[in-house]
Amino acid sequence: MIVSRETHERLIAYEALVRKWNARINLVAPSTLPEFNSRHIQDSIQIFDHVKLSEGNWVDLGSGGGLPGIVVSIYAQKAPLTVSLVESDQRKSAFLRTVIRELSLQNVSILTDRIENVPPLTANFISARALAPLSVLLPMVRRHMHQDGTAMFLKGRSWKAECDEARKEWRFDVTSFPSKTDPDAAILKITGVSHA
Ligand SMILES: C[S@@+](CC[C@H](N)C(=O)[O-])C[C@H]1O[C@@H](n2cnc3c(N)ncnc32)[C@H](O)[C@@H]1O
User: Fold this and answer.
1) Is the dihedral of CA 52, 107, 101, 96 positive or negative?
2) Test site for ligand 1: of 71, 129, 131, 144, most ligand atoms within 8 A of the Cβ
3) Which residues form the signal peptide (predicted)?
């Protein structure tokens, strides 16, 4: 995806901070650092091929080192969007605060708490990557997503089985898109979540 010079510079600065902090905190698997751009940045940014940003709030659940939440924030600096990163780990939250400060990100805040404990956020958009199977994510979506909201999940090879399992308890509309960065992975776009 082609991005503006400002966005590109912020993405480079973000990568440098991950590399610096990763020696102390396991933000990403060290084996993925040589391919950080494709494995993490491009993997996250492809969300925007499939969702049209509108005014509102975007909530990234289990942000860890900021994937995809920080990338969403960088990409949406000029959009009328606020971004909330929910991350229970104090040290990862400290890292995320550092990124926000050093990159002068204007639209993003951090909630250092468990997703289940955060008061409902009524999000227009929700994202999550490598957090939990769909049957565990959907109760979180129910709690935090506006009824007309859209959830974007970056999922690995088990995404079809996860959809089947989740349908035992939940109704939802799902569209899957092949990942550009991993032939077995998919991006799931989910709306209309309710109990079966
Ligand atoms: C495997 S990491 C993935 C991080 C990031 N999304 C990524 O793709 O690199 C999962 C993250 O979710 C956080 N997490 C797990 N369960 C959580 C919960 N219930 N509430 C808040 N954060 C949670 C963990 O602390 C961890 O940082």
Assistant:
1) negative
2) 131
3) none
**Which tens digits make up the pLDDT trace of 93-115?**
999 999 999 999 999 999 999 99
Which distant-in-sequence residues (6+ apart) come within 8 Å of 28 by Cβ? 18, 22, 36, 39, 40, 64, 65, 67
Please give the class, per CATH, of domain 5-195. alpha beta
CA–centroid distance, 62 to ligand 1, in Å, is 3
ipTM of the complex: 0.99
Angle between helices 159-166 and 134-144 (to 10 degrees): 60
- The residues lining ligand 1, judged by C-beta closer than 6 Å to any ligand atom, are 28, 62-65, 67, 86-89, 92, 114-116, 129-131
Domain ranges of the chain: 5-195
For residue 66, the ligand 1 atom closest to its alpha carbon is 5
